[in-house]
Structures are given as structure tokens and as C-alpha cells.
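Protein modeling request. Please complete all fields; requests missing the sequence field cannot be processed.
Requester role: graduate student
Desired output: 3D structure, C-alpha cell encoding
Chains: 1
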Amino acid sequence: QCRHGLAAGAIVSKIPFLVIIARPMARFVVLNIVGAALFAASVIHGVGLIPFQADSTYMTWGIAGVFLIGLIYAAFGKWGTVEWIGDKLVFLGLLGTVVGFIIALSGVDPATAGETSAITPMVAKLISGMGTALHTTLVGAIGYLWLELNQKLAG
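Delivered output (155 residues):
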């Protein structure tokens, strides 16, 4: 009951928008439409695809695929599975960090590090590895946070 003597349900039913938002599936749909619009805006402004383009291993695409599977489970309300997938996204992001560092350091040859002609390929390998390391971590963390947000608001 509110201070005017009306039940909470009576107040919500008087405002159609609140009736829609009060339903978990409606919250899920609205939340993910907003998320898709924000991602589309980032792509239009040239930053949304950078993590995918900078990763030479394509691990970010795999992590994004796992995220989409988690989103499908969220649509069906399988919150235990969504939580499990979210945890794996963090793990996959950290695995990508390790792979990226391995790539970055595999290009460093201590025997030729002092030679001017060897520096350019070493720096290119370092940049490629760091791109994988940082972008897989970013995509995994964002995917985890988005699934967690879905679980909190729509679950």
C-alpha cells in the first residue's frame, strides 16, 4: 500500500510503461535493444570493431560467440547457465591475455635484439600480441558484465 491507500499493483497498472517494464522478458528485450543500439553506435563511430580487427588469433570472435550463446540462454531464463557462461567469459578473456603475451614475447630474440634490422619485426610481433592480450580481456569482461546485468535486471 502507498500513502494514498492504493496497492502497488494498482499504481503500476495505471501507467502502461511500468506494466511493460515490470515483466522480466520486457526488461530483457529493452535492455538488449539498448545494448545493441550502443554497440551499433560504436561501430558507426569506428571503435566497436577494433577489438576484433586487432586480434590476429580471432579469439575475440570466439569469446563474442560464447557471449551470444549466453544471451540466448538468458532469453529463455536459464540463469544458472547464464552465470556459468559469464564466468567462462572472464576465464576466456584471461586465457586470451596469456596467449597474447606468448605471441608478444615469441617475437623477441635476445640474440638479434641489438640489430637495427631486427627491431621492426620484433615491435610488430609485440604489438600483435598485446592487441590479442588486451582485446580478449576487454571482450570477455564486457560480455561478463552484460550477462550479469541481464541476470540482475531481467532474472
